[in-house]
Specification:
It is a single chain. By secondary structure, the protein is an alpha+beta fold. The chain contains 5 helices and 9 strands. Strands 1, 2, 3, 4, 5, 6, 7, 8 and 9 form a 9-stranded antiparallel beta sheet that branches. The mean pLDDT is 97.
Length: 211
Amino acid sequence: MNVMHLRREYATGQLLESMVETDPYKQFCKWLHEALLAEIIEPYAMTLATATLQGRPSSRIVLLRGIDPSGFSFFTNYFSRKGQELTANPQAAISFYWPEIERQIHIEGAVHPTIDAESDEYFKSRPRGSQIAAWASEQSEELPSREVLDQRVAELEKQFEGQEVPRPEHWGGFKLIPKRYEFWQGRPSRLHDRLLFTWEADRWRLSRLSP
């Protein structure tokens, strides 16, 4: 398949220094709100990039499940590949891509596990089927067959019948503490706008990057 000539032009907006909030968290919230108004499917889906101590990278799509001025939270099995990489090398990057409004946001920073109370609160909010799945799936481990997984689910549904499903100890959240935000707005002829916020000397510094 030849993809060399597949392309689209970006021409719906611009991003000037005078247009952004001085606090990148507020700018993120503004853009996320506009993505929601644009009825983008799962605008809270993000690419999470991690790496081993040896620098071997990996990435996957996860869902943003918590946000406040201190950081961005998501949840997983701590024994999964991403969980183990984040435990060994607690640095990560997340990226949001909203093609309908021709925007991207890239965020980098240190990561730490969320407190148990936060993990418990989110786990209780999940559908019961997802709670059972957190027990049934040995995430990222080799699975003999789909039938084995389905059998685990059936056994756990019977085990927890008539009671609340508790949060497994191996399942919980991580929070990324931003040190760098990049806001990207598509522009014609690939001359995109890229505004960068970096945390320096206890304040956010704004600069422009070449497209």
